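User: Okay, second chain of the day. Same drill as before: sequence in, structure tokens out.
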Amino acid sequence: MAILGEGISLFYFMRIVIQRVTKAEVCVEGQCVGAIGHGLLLFLGVGRGDEESDADWLVKRITKLRIFESAPGRIDLALPDITGEALVISQFTLFASLKKGNRPSFNRAALPEEAEALYHYFVNQLSQALGRPVPTGRFGADMQIEAHNDGPVTLLVDSKNRDF
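Assistant: Same drill. Structure tokens below.
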């Protein structure tokens, strides 16, 4: 939570972009560090004040999302139902603010040490929920991501807007 003046607070939240893919991979310095087949490519942004409970809620939400087809035109299966894979990429730029000028501000993103700890916690929790390791990019690195979007289906979810 950030404090804005006398007693005024602004809550930030863990934010995730979910893309349904037929395959995706992430490379760092020309080396592939993570790849998946059919499943979800997850771009995770950690905001100031986020906690493990935000990551826990997102993991539950992601593993229950019914966004895969059981038959043509019938979208009613979740990631575990299809034995799908997940690839997680850290993405602090999800907290960019363009309120002032043309240069984005990232003040709402968590500090790198805090963000990295929650990022790894999220990946570990997702791995446990899926019953297998979840590949990732490299936190803080310049990454190249190749994705074959399926649908396309792209969703934005945040941990504080649970009416979603």
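Confidence is low (pLDDT under 50) at residues 1-9.

User: Thanks, on to the next one.
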